Amino acid sequence: RSEGHIRFYGVATWDGLRVPPGEANHLDLARLWHLAESIGGPRHGFRWVQAPLNLGMPESFITPTQELDGQRLTLLEAAQALGISMQTSASMLQGRILRSLEAQRAALDAVLPGCASAAQLALQFTRSCPGVATALCGMGSKTHVEENLPVMALSKADPDALRSLFA
Predict the structure, then answer these.
(1) What CA–CA distance (Å, rounded) separates 84 from 55?
(2) How far apart are the first and last CA of the chain?
(3) Which residues have C-beta within 8 Å of that of residue 149, sequence separation ≥ 6?
(4) What span, in angstroms and rounded, lies between the C-alpha atoms of 164 and 38?
(5) DSSP structure class, residue 41
């Protein structure tokens, strides 16, 4: 990084940032930040985290798994407070949640209006969570891209309405 070969870097984990403190595989984002700062100084370049976030795995959005300045925060809140960008993986959980989303269509349509398919519902949820910079989604065909692209034209959903899905 000091030689200019790496502009920014981050960490990616399936569980570590989503599980609560006390779990064996818990990662403390503030500790990672402080480690980066202690090694690289104030211009350390630690600017990204990647973790799954979807309607079946909403912990990064709703579960306070991180501690920062004595407060328990969600991963998204902690990342925002530290100036770290959040890139999500598994927006559709490799397609495994789509069938269950169709079964919950009425409740989801009320919170995520304008979605024409379960795939669009899944993407709209993830991209609407405050603090998400990039919602990754694998698409194996041109048809998938054509189906999912209209989500970008939708306004992001209200965060409180998103939280209501898990109340």
Answers:
(1) 22
(2) 43
(3) none
(4) 40
(5) G
Could you give the CA distance from residue 136 to residue 52 in angstroms, rounded to a whole number? 9
Hey, what are 102's tokens? 């169709």
The string of pLDDT tens digits covering residues 82-140 is 999 999 999 999 889 999 999 999 999 999 999 999 999 999 999 999 999 999 998 88
Least Cα distance to 35 among 63, 9, 71, 5 occurs for: 9
- Cβ 149 vs Cβ 158: under 8 Å: no
How many other C-beta atoms are found inside a 10 Å radius of the C-beta of residue 75? 27
Are the C-beta atoms of 72 and 35 separated by less than 8 Å? no
The two structure tokens encoding residue 91:
């927006």
What does DSSP say about strands 132-135 and 66-68: parallel, antiparallel, or unpaired? unpaired
Read off the pTM.
0.94
Tell me the one-letter amino acid at 22.
Answer: G
Beta-carbon count within 10 A of 49 CB: 26
Q: Which two tokens stand for residue 130?
A: 């405050």
What is the C-alpha separation between 88 and 56, in angstroms, rounded?
13
For 2-27, give one letter per residue: b (16+ CB within 10 A) or e: eeeeeeeebbeeeebbbbeeeeeeeb
